[in-house]
C-alpha cells in the first residue's frame, strides 16, 4: 500500500483481477521522481483509493484494464508462436542429426540402394528414419544371403 495521498501521481490504474474488481494495480510516481507499482484495495475508506479516484474515474480504470488484457493476449499469441517455432526448429535439428547418424552407418553409407537413401531422406520423424533404415538394411542383407 502506498501512502501518497494527493501528492502522489497515479499512472495507468487497472484492475488487478478484472473479474473481481477488488484491487487496483497502479504505477505511482513519487515526489522524488521514482516510480513504483502498487496495489490499492477498492475501499471507499482507504485514502489511497480516494486519491486515485480524484485523478482517474472507474471508467478510465475499466478502459486501462481492457487495454492491458488486450496487450497481454497479443503478447501471449506472439510467445506461443515463438514457442511453436522454437519447438519445430528443435524437432528439425534432431531429425537432421538422426539422419546424419544413420547415413554415417557403413551399411547405409556404402549401399547402392538409392530407394533406401531416398526413404531415409524423406522421413518426417526419427522413428520413421529408424524404421526406414532398419527395413533397408534388412533388405540389403537378405539380397546378399
Q: Taking strands numbered 1, 2, ... along the chain, how are they ordered across the largest sheet?
A: 1-2-3
Average the pLDDT over all residues and give the rounded result: 91
- Give helix % range: 55-70%
Spell out the helices and strands N to C.
Answer: EEEHHHHH
Runs with pLDDT <50, length 5+? none
Task: Report how far the terminal alpha carbons are from each other.
Answer: 83 Å
Strand content: 5-15%
Helix/strand class: alpha+beta
Total number of strands: 3
Overall geometry: rod-shaped
Tally of distinct domains: 2
SS element count, helices:
5
Main sheet specs: 3 strands, antiparallel
Taking Cα atoms only, what radius of gyration do you get, to the nearest Å?
31 Å
Structure description:
A three-stranded antiparallel β-sheet has the order 1-2-3. A hairpin with a 7-residue loop joins strand 1 (9-15) and strand 2 (23-29). It is an alpha+beta fold. Helices cover 60% and strands 14% of the residues. Helix 4 (114-122) runs antiparallel to helix 5 (126-144). It is built from five helices and three strands, in the order βββααααα. The relative contact order is 0.09. The longest helix has 46 residues, at 58-103.
